[in-house]
Amino acid sequence: MDVLQMTDLEIYELGIKELTEQLGPAYATQFLQHCKPRNYDYTAERHKYMANDPDIYTLAKRIQQGEASRKEEEHIKAERIAAWRKGLVELTDIEIYELGFKILADELEGYGLLRFITQHFRQL
To answer: Which pLDDT tens digit goes with each residue over 63-114?
Structure first.
């Protein structure tokens, strides 16, 4: 599969197929309903985060703490997804959203994912 040779519609159909196969029809539909453009002001978030303008050592410490937290979160996510695949738990909206994007990114790679999302927005 070469997404560079595929049309936007072919990429979209492949993405829908993968989401449906891996998430099931209900979760695939839920993912697509949540996947829509949003107004987000990155600049405001950055200013809020950097309000006190921490020094480089404080930033480095935050990064290290963040990496440790991300590893723990990834471990917990993997356990929940494994439990979901066994039918033991239901996924939350954010878990469906994250898993859907991971499926698309793994299957379509970056360029294909961008084209999938662009095509999806056209469908809305």
So the answer is: 889 898 999 999 999 999 999 999 999 999 999 999 999 999 999 998 999 9
Identify which of 2, 5, 9, 1 has the alpha carbon closest to the alpha carbon of residue 115: 9
- For the chain, which residues make up each domain, given as ranges? 8-58+92-123
Amino acid at 80: R
> Rg for the chain (alpha carbons), in Å?
18
CB-based contact 103:19 (threshold 8 Å): yes
CA 62, 64, 65 angle in degrees (round to 5)? 65
pLDDT at residue 55, as a whole number: 80
Q: How far is CA 31 from CA 9, 98, 103, in A?
A: 18, 9, 11
The two three-digit tokens of residue 65, written as one number: 């703490």
Query: If you count DSSP H runs as helices and E runs as strands, how many of each does the chain have, helices first?
Result: 5, 0
